[in-house]
Design goal:
The chain contains two helices and nine strands. With 117 residues, it is an alpha+beta fold.
Length: 117
């Protein structure tokens, strides 16, 4: 019996492909100890910004998720802002890069890199 995931962080197929490509380019694609760290930091024109890094060291209060074959890790404080957020990637003419579809954001900036709750 399978149940739908709730209270997680999700990643689209396009973002998954880009993450795997970036890991390969960085020389860590074959190292299964690495994961994508997603966090929220103060700053940006709306008050809070997203941050993405590759990491291979978990911290005691980390929340770990796996979606679409990608291990996503966030700290507990960031997770409160990121619950049920989808990480996506656009390579279109109107903007290239990762972006977040965050149901918790009350407003986002024009570039999509910062938000407010």
């Amino acid at each position: 019996m399978s149940t739908a995931l709730e209270n997680s962080i999700y990643i689209s197929d396009k973002a998954k492909s880009k993450v795997h490509q970036l890991m390969k380019d960085a020389g860590i694609g074959a190292d299964s100890s690495y994961f994508l760290r997603v966090s929220v930091v103060g700053g940006g024109c709306s008050g809070l910004s997203y941050k993405l890094d590759f990491d291979n060291e978990s911290k005691p209060m980390d929340q770990t998720f796996e979606d679409n074959g990608v291990k996503l890790v966030t700290d507990l404080k960031s997770f409160l802002y990121l619950v049920n957020t989808m990480l996506d990637f656009s390579d279109g003419l109107n903007g290239k890069g990762f972006y977040f579809s965050n149901p918790n954001a009350s407003r986002t900036c024009g570039c999509g890199e910062s938000f407010a709750v």
